[in-house]
Amino acid sequence: HGVSFLANPNGTPLSERNNTSRPDGYLVLSNEKTEPKIHWFDIAVPFEFKKGRDFESLRDDEEKIIWSLHNIMREDPLRRFAFGITIEDTQLRLWLSNRALLAVTEPINFFENIDGVILLFYALGFASASSAVKELGWDPTVERIRDGEVFQYKFTIGDEVFTPTRELATYGADSMVGRGTRVYEATDAEGKKVAVKDSWREAGRQSEGEILKNILASCEKKLQPDELANAKRHFVGVRLWQDIAIDDTRDETPMVAEEHNRTWVSIDLNPTLFTKRHLSSKGDVPDSGQLSALFSTQLGIIAHKETGIPRSVHTRTVFHDVGVALKDVTSLADNLTCLSGALMALYYLHKAGWVHRDFSVGNAIWVEGVGKLGDFEYAKEIDSDTSNDVRTGTMHFMAVEVESQNYLFFPRHAHHRHQPSFRMNFLHDIESIWWAFTWILFYHTDTKTANADHSFDAHAQLKEYHSAFPGTVGQTSRRDFFLYAGRLQTKLENLLSKTCFNVCSPIIPDFAHALQDGYEKAEAKFPTLTLDDALLNDMHTKAATYLNDAQRRAGGIELCPLSNLLKQKRPRPGDETSLPPKNQGKKARYA
Predict the structure, then answer these.
(1) What is the pLDDT of residues 346-355, one digit of tens each?
(2) Rg of the Cα trace of the chain?
(3) Interhelix angle 476-483/485-495, nearest 10 degrees
(4) Which of 42, 81, 469, 541 sits at 20 to 30 Å (Cα–Cα) from 488?
């Protein structure tokens, strides 16, 4: 291996994502097998250049380098991190993107600090000399095999090798900062079908496999044998899990050493880019990459001072079975049966003393007629000694108390009392089930209505859907949608097709009322919370009854997403030139 530099390349790099952007230059892998046409997989370090240092020049380079780094990270399953370089006039900045942060150095004047610039390019060249080029961000535990225009991969996990046969979920890789989750259907050495999940978890958290192991240990202590068997039937089955090791060292997001401590530069990833300075966080910042240890300037990060420096650990999990996410199930009856199975899994989870904290339509899995619950990465024991829960969960399905991080249903006379630290409980998980149930009916209509030419107003339903599921924290429309169940009944009648209305009326508002009653019972003696077995059993029984009632009404109804019904002509393939919409891509499907 090695890298060569190309400036102002004539061709647009090949892309699996129809990306037509072209950096001003790049360091590209060069070896005998390199194809004449450069692929984004081959780009080691993208560059952007400007002659001036005015605001517009800086902004343009920032937007383009961030887009290039974003594309590298989402496009290439082998990339653990990526570097980029921007040059404006005589000022050079080095950029770093990984799953925990986006970072940029303070500007380096390469006339005044020529030694630093030479050291930087020496480090990049030295890193590329490695047979696995791991110091430039590629993953040596994944092998890419090119067969004509098709790429195949082999993932090593422990002593086993798994060959992906198709993507099940790629949406996690679309976010620059986050878990970067990719899920594949794969086969092991003996041809057995499994699901392989590659992701990054926050340092300090247990792996999903370890958490599920602890959950099952709690179930064995607290459940009857028949309950334990049923719990295992409705939990995803984990075969193997392991943190990735590079040269016998756990693969963590690269950091710079603390002795290089200077002013941090924060990069805001909102559509309107800007930079803001703040003091660096204190604490031990380990040096986890040889390349970063050579830098004489401090890398900046995306971080709030109160949260410290983000670090993530690279991990892989292998699941026994491959299923279909609830969101991708087209039969309404199967959808609701899958949701009921996930609710049953939550019941056993709660009875064993745990809360899930991240239920969504992406982690309820339909596996050969059985609804299963997945994604236990944020699950936690109810009596954990954590003083205060951070906000976790998928925004669309988050309980309103979790969103606000406050208890909302205690008596009026208790308002003057000191509020205890907010902690998630089983009611919040059950409310997430309600949000998923509601999502199914507002995100879709039935195919009979979709195919008919009559007065059904899909635009009005979609508008209400966006009001109830805004996707951002703090929208009062979302809280009102849940709290005012009387209005909700009217919305169901006015907006949904008659077929869908007959399935969910008055179940959705009644379910919401029951949840609110449950919250009021739990918070009646506020600030003491009453979360006993009687309330747990009562709420789960009611929730299961509501879902079973809706499932019986569903019959043979098939679902059609409103977005498909209203879809306008798509842009031509290859027109992607800006950041994709949030949550683009496939949702997780594994068990």
Answers:
(1) 999 999 999 9
(2) 26
(3) 100
(4) 541
